[in-house]
Design a protein that fits this description.
mainly beta; 1 helix; five-stranded antiparallel sheet; 7% helix; 151 residues; five-stranded mixed sheet
């Protein structure tokens, strides 16, 4: 399914969780700080930056996280697998040309940017940045789609 997305945000909402998606405006090297070292992943204009809130909550923190990455180029921090802080992360972010939502991973512990922790109601959704929007695969019928203007 093609969903239009230009400068604003795409909001996919389940009954208890949501995913907020935006496009990278320009190309840059996204630094990923992981326990075993630093990685740099190139992002191109039109790649996706997505914030997942597996337990729901307000959308504004997700919007801020996306802007910290795509506008201010803040690095992503990856926690070790058994880090106690991963339980307290309410919103997690991922960036790249393709993002797959997965409920079987621990929040904030995966440097692979094609994977993003989600609730089980959004698990399996695959997002692909395409010209003029986002190609969404495996979108459950119970998920509502909305748009938010650019901040």
């Amino acid at each position: 399914m093609f969903l239009e997305l230009d400068t604003g945000f795409l909001l996919l909402r389940g009954s208890n969780s949501f995913l907020l998606v935006a496009k990278a405006v320009s190309g840059f090297g996204l630094c990923i700080e992981a326990p075993d070292g630093e990685y740099v992943q190139g992002l191109s204009p039109g790649d996706l930056v997505a914030a997942s809130a597996p337990e729901g909550g307000p959308v504004e923190p997700a919007r801020m996280l996306i802007d910290l990455v795509r506008t201010y180029r803040m690095p992503l921090i990856v926690l070790p697998k058994d880090h106690p802080g991963s339980r307290r992360l309410r919103v997690v972010v991922s960036a790249g040309p393709v993002i797959e939502l997965n409920c079987g991973i621990r929040r904030g512990t995966h440097p692979e940017q094609h994977l993003l922790c989600s609730s089980d109601e959004l698990a399996g959704i695959v997002l692909r940045g395409v010209s003029g929007g986002v190609e969404v695969s495996r979108l459950p019928e119970t998920v509502t789609v909305g748009h938010l203007p650019a901040a």
